[in-house]
Amino acid sequence: xxxxxxxxxxxxxxxxxxxxxxxxxxxxxxxxxxxxxxxxxxxxxxxxxxxxxxxxxxxxxxxxxxxxxxxxxxxxxxxxxxxxxxxxxxxxxxxxxxxxxxxxxxxxxxxxxxxxxxxxxxxxxxxxxxxxxxxxxxxxxxxxxxxxxxxxxxxxxxxxxxxxxxxxxxxxxxxxxxxxxxxxxxxxxxxxxxxxxxxxxxxxxxxxxxxxxxxxxxxxxxxxxxxxxxxxxxxxxxxxxxxx
Length: 244
Ligand SMILES: Nc1ncnc2c1ncn2[C@@H]1O[C@H](COP(=O)(O)OP(=O)(O)OP(=O)(O)O)[C@@H](O)[C@H]1O
Ligand SMILES: [Mg+2]
Hints:
Layout: H1 4-7, E1 17-22, H2 28-42, E2 47-51, H3 56-64, H4 70-75, E3 79-83, H5 89-98, H6 105-126, E4 130-134, H7 137-142, H8 146-160, E5 166-171, H9 185-188, E6 191-200, E7 203-213, E8 223-228, E9 231-234
Parallel strand pairs: 1-5, 1-6, 2-3, 2-4, 4-5
Antiparallel strand pairs: 6-7, 7-8, 8-9
Helix pairs in contact: 6-8
């Protein structure tokens, strides 16, 4: 991806798990999808998107707006969409209304195991080299207990490290700003990219920072990025703060 490749010398390291953290509307889904699309079109690397947020048709329609035709890629056997929306927030609300019994820990563990198996299967089908999980934050709503949540995240991230693909996992941060709580997941993954909106004098600027990327040299400056009808553009040679 233009801009991001310059921040991470040579682009994302292969066979690694990278966490993309950002608030609502930061552009996590677009960034992760752009990574998949670039793989398909520029590097002949097939992809899998695991969505916990939205169904396939909605995803196809949203991404078509950027000119990214995932439906065609699916028809060509280059792309696989894993619909995991049953684990989404909306699904949980519905379950609660239906009073379904899915709250036992055993039931939830099985759901993660099932999801991992589904992801492995989807990758095998198209021989995917790039995988996106959007978004881990959805699991937070299912696993309200911090220990359960930790176990689920660890299981999932461990399984993802073992897939032979480069994996981007999106997640949310409770509160934005430069002072923040570190998410436990950040220690488990190989790389962390942070997307945030900074406010100054009534104007807002989007900023991206590669916080860590094990084994490669990275530029950890907070740099501006924009979102437009072509997707995300990262201005890697600029910084958000002028040097004095
Ligand atoms: N064509 C466009 N031009 C400018 N901005 C756009 C365009 N399309 C989308 N955006 C911006 O992109 C953002 C949404 O991006 P995206 O869905 O990737 O965010 P997200 O971080 O995944 O959000 P969520 O937490 O809701 O999943 C919105 O803030 C929207 O304003
Ligand atoms: Mg999103």
